Amino acid sequence: MVEVPALFFFVLAASSMAAAAIHLGPPALYVLGDSTLDVGNNNYLPGADVRRANRRYYGIDFPGFPAGRFSNGYNTADFVANTMGFVSSPPPYLSLRQASSNSGQRHLLATTALTTGNAGRCIPLSRQVQYFNATRAVMVSTVGSSKATTMLSRSVFLMGVGSNDLFVFGFAEPARNRSSAEQQSDGAELLANLISNYSATITELYSMGARKFAVINVGPVGCVPIFRRLDAAGQCDAVLNQLAAAFDDALRSLLAGLAERLPGLAYSLGDYFALAQDTFANPLVLGFTDIAAACCGSGRLLAEADCMPNSTLCANRGQHVFWDRYHPSQRACFLTALAFYVGPAKYTTPINFKQLALSS
Ligand SMILES: *[C@@H]1O[C@H](CO)[C@@H](O)[C@H](O)[C@H]1NC(C)=O
Ligand SMILES: *[C@@H]1O[C@H](CO)[C@@H](O)[C@H](O)[C@H]1NC(C)=O
Ligand SMILES: *[C@@H]1O[C@H](CO)[C@@H](O)[C@H](O)[C@H]1NC(C)=O
Ligand SMILES: *[C@@H]1O[C@H](CO)[C@@H](O)[C@H](O)[C@H]1NC(C)=O
């Protein structure tokens, strides 16, 4: 498995699984998430401050690069779509809007902050919900309310948000020079806001007909190269990781609670935190030789600047967990999607993505 190039898998699975998907798989996949799941909305956001993946070396392993993904190739949303039997990932929502063709049924909404943290530089989750509502309205007027309801109830809603908000916090908080007690209370307040926002979002989507949620939790964000670079020994930022773990605990309880309260709601929670920790602990098992440095960037751990056309590029992209100073490499994304779809039970609660996708 380790030696199979991700792209190869993508093509193979697309042709062998597409037929099954017609009868068994979900009719559609909707993605609401942050830059790790974005397949190109960032290209359509106005403003000079928007982080974009529209230049070299993004997509260096993607056919026809750069492809708007913060990866050297495909990202986790692509591989989840593929494992679920879709021939390709849903197109970026904003690209469809611009082409004013709203009939596609698998829009991808991505790049987000749950709260106002990255205001103006991404699409807040609340706006992603509005986009979905608009998409749903078109669907209802096209196929009728009852068919739309059936389709939506069988569709999968892939969500992964929160890490942007923790990043923003991770940078802002030390600069504020507050006592550790104050930092703790700031962290607690942030988590409470994030979870209440997540809860409101899932509840709204449910009220619009969504029933199946594939949720990816927040990884150990303190271990991304940009934070390791700040540590003299290149270690992870333990405070940020604790915050991420606390967020993930709250998210687990939230989903369990929502499933009890909202009839028919089904979910699979992918434990990216645990998967990443296991990967960092035993990288060679998965064929990774570098868990700390970016593959594209400059300076220490190639994490002192974003990935740009004049960046240094590592020699072994498939052996790096991280592609740029924030985002995982294509191969890490592939292994993540696979772990959540059919991987060891310890990485998904209470069922895996495959069981969710195939459930009726
Ligand atoms: C999430 O938080 C933002 C800003 O804090 C707010 O504007 C938005 O309405 C919230 N979303 C939901 C669904 O509650
Ligand atoms: C969704 O759109 C409908 C109109 O199509 C509107 O009445 C409703 O308030 C919207 N819901 C949300 C949560 O935005
Ligand atoms: C941070 O706060 C301490 C006292 O709480 C003060 O001595 C120090 O100068 C402050 N540092 C900065 C960079 O503001
Ligand atoms: C790369 O180019 C940017 C301007 O586009 C410049 O600011 C930066 O210093 C350059 N980095 C290196 C490593 O040469």
Strand order of the largest sheet: 2-1-3-4-5-8
What would you give as the CATH superfamily? SGNH hydrolase
Largest sheet entry: 6 strands, mixed
The CATH topology is Rossmann fold
Average pLDDT, all residues: 82
Proper CATH architecture: 3-Layer(aba) Sandwich
Number of helices: 12
**H and E order:** HEHHEHHEHHEHHEHEEHEH
The proportion of strand residues reads 5-15%
- DSSP E strands, number: 8
Bound molecules: 2-acetamido-2-deoxy-beta-D-glucopyranose
Secondary structure: helix percent = 40-55%
Give Rg in angstroms: 19 Å
Count of structural domains: 1
Q: What is the terminal-to-terminal distance?
A: 30 Å
Unreliable parts: 1-23, 98-120
**CATH top level assignment:** Alpha Beta
Break the fold down into its secondary structure elements and pairings.
Elements: H1 6-23, E1 29-33, H2 76-83, H3 93-98, E2 108-109, H4 125-143, H5 145-154, E3 156-160, H6 163-175, H7 180-207, E4 212-216, H8 225-228, H9 238-261, E5 266-270, H10 272-281, E6 296-297, E7 312-313, H11 330-342, E8 348-349, H12 353-358
Parallel strand pairs: 1-2, 1-3, 3-4, 4-5
Antiparallel strand pairs: 5-8, 6-7
Helix pairs in contact: 2-11, 4-5, 4-7, 7-9
The structure holds 2-acetamido-2-deoxy-beta-D-glucopyranose (4 copies).
